[in-house]
Amino acid sequence: MEQFAIEHVISFHMDYDPEIICQFFASVYFHTNDERRMTWMTNGRQLTATWKEFMELLNVPDEGLDTPVGVHPHANSESANKNLLQPFLVEKVLPNGKSSWVLNSFLDIMHRIFRNTLFPRIGDKDKVHAYLVDMLLLCAEARSSQTQPLDVSHIMWCELRFAVFTRKVPIYGPYLFLLLSTTWEKTYPGDEFLAPDWIRHESISLRVKPNWANTTTRAEASSARRAAGEGEAAAAETVAEDRAARSSHSSSEPSWAKKLKDKMKTLFCMQAKGQYRTHVASKESRRRDNKILQLYGEAVSGGSEEHITPEAEWMEKQGYRWTDSEEDVEETIPAAEESDDGHWDEFPA
Prior knowledge:
This protein is mainly alpha-helical. The protein is built from eleven helices and five strands. The protein has helices at 7-10, 18-27, 51-57, 105-114, 132-144, 152-165, 173-187, 218-251, 255-268, 270-295, 311-318; strands at 29-30, 37-42, 45-50, 89-93, 99-103. Helix 4 packs across helix 5 (132-144). The longest helix is centred in the last third of the chain and has 34 residues, at 218-251. It is flat. Mean pLDDT is 76; it is low at 211-221 and 326-349.
């Protein structure tokens, strides 16, 4: 970190509003001039700033795209092949006796640092993506010899544009929120910068990998198995605590997360929702018919149309169930699907 001179960048901390960040990604326009000006919308108003102004807020040197200020992994038009990392892989024997090949401890730590800061990624935490390969190769080289500082400006410029143009998950939330709030105060000094859904930018605790040591001998493998056995009880407690934490977190989730969840339910349960709406419309229609018959003096007996089953309960009865955790998922067959004997279940009125 000292050789690359990026301590202040990877330790940057700022709470931010995800909705404001999403507005930036949805509206930003990168100008083609030398100053690399960006224009975007925030809270219905237009803001603009140059890339150099952004980097000055982060205390990052920038002399333009044509004047590098250090080494940068995006120097080539394509990222390096992952096979170049093979010399840095070590064999890890698992407690069950199987073995796998993983990055050595130094590159594994560097990988986790960079994928949570300058190269944000989601998904498989052990997978090395795109230009992270080049970055790790630079780290391996810097470990054995003196190197130049890292060109943070060039990295952030390439990663941000890639995320915007390919519609990836928004990145650099804390960094961008500093730019948005500062530019707003500069452009509209008399107006309040509205960001109601702030979330806490927590300090990241790097994942501790159990039994990381290169257990290549039988003695070491036996030791790892014993350690794994002793840790099973602690692991069970950790799982229970994680579930409790997810439960408490879900009860206090921000408004944008609830809206997103509702949209996802609508998208993935579209067919089931259509069936439920048909169910509701059918009962409401029978209600109207009964009222008309009563107006003409006909005797009408009450039925189930007086009670409309709540959507969540109806979905559960039909076999459709939305879960917030993959651990709670169970394979179920909706009632409308064909049974094993080739007959179709009747659709409830």
